[in-house]
Amino acid sequence: MMHKSLISILCNCLLCLATNVLAQDSHFSQFYANRLNLNPAWAGVGEENRVFINYRNQYPGIGSIYKTYTLSYDQYVENLHGGLGLSFSNDVQGSGAMNQMVFSSMYSYHFKASRSLSFSGGIQAAAISRTVVSSGFEFADQYDPATGTVNQGGGSESYPNSSSFFPDFSFGAAGFHNEFYGGVSLFHVLKPFQSPNKSEESRLPRKFTLFAGTYIPVYERRLGKEVLKLNPNVIYIQQKDLSQLVYGLESVYKSKYIAGLWLRQNLGLKYSSLIVSGGVVFDTMRLRYSYDAQFSHPTIQIPRLGAHEISLILLVADNKKIKHKAIKCPKI
């Protein structure tokens, strides 16, 4: 009964947001394993062609009502002096009450300023399909608060089904110096309308992202052999009134085993998440799992908040010999 009531409340709030308030982008804890979602300037960076597969299940303790899937690919194209990327994402909210699919393509131009300093600038064009289905859900105005019985009228007809399709554009830039890297990106530059009626309240707010990190090798003193790689990162995301800061460290032991610990601070909502991750590295594949343990504000008493996330990175062999001097980046 607790689960049903909680799901109904969340779905009701979700549909109200869908029709009256600006929606926010979905996010991933393993942003380093979903780099095209972080910044289009990452397209084609590195020496390998890569396929990224990501899955996130948020709030599983109350019914898995938020699920997000992404599939992306990028590679360097010598004739274009940069990289190309393709991405598809499907964000399912409220157990299907809202569904948003995004098809995007991106290009990044690579510029090598010196042997140790490189830059990339990327643009992204996307097509977004968004649907809201209110049927099948129970709403507060369907019930008499005194008796708990069903009222005549009210309910899902107050929130009609809707669908929309609209373009979207984003851009970003990144810099790389030896083992250090950083960048900035701006998504939804034109603030597209999300609803068919094109009301100002339905515009998708711009999202600003700032990130930085480095790659630190640790060597065994006696033999001088690398045994550990440390990869600290920090990322700041701002979208309308919501902002979050994520910082932490991932380590790779003997180029095989991955472990990470991160903290996300949702600055506007006054709560934080501890993110624990682990994985394994193969010759052509990197597999990770992470869990978000969410710490809510003392005044918010919603149980079992958290998220499961799985990422898979596949390195695609290219039979052509790479002639360009690829931008060096961490093998995330």
Question: Your description of this structure?
Answer:
The chain is built from two helices and 15 strands. The protein has a single domain (2-316), classed as Porin (Beta Barrel). Residues 1-22 have low confidence and may be disordered. The protein starts with a helix and ends in a 16-residue tail after the last strand. With 332 residues, it is mainly beta. The chain has helices at residues 2-20, 35-38, and strands at residues 49-58, 66-77, 82-93, 98-112, 117-132, 162-177, 180-187, 207-214, 216-219, 226-239, 242-253, 257-266, 271-281, 285-295, 306-316. A 14-stranded antiparallel beta barrel has the order 1-2-3-4-5-6-7-8-10-11-12-13-14-15.
List keywords for this structure.
14-stranded antiparallel barrel, mainly beta, 332 residues, 2 helices, Porin, 51% strand
Layout of secondary structure:
Blueprint: H1 2-20, H2 35-38, E1 49-58, E2 66-77, E3 82-93, E4 98-112, E5 117-132, E6 162-177, E7 180-187, E8 207-214, E9 216-219, E10 226-239, E11 242-253, E12 257-266, E13 271-281, E14 285-295, E15 306-316
Antiparallel strand pairs: 1-2, 1-15, 2-3, 3-4, 4-5, 5-6, 6-7, 7-8, 8-10, 9-10, 10-11, 11-12, 12-13, 13-14, 14-15
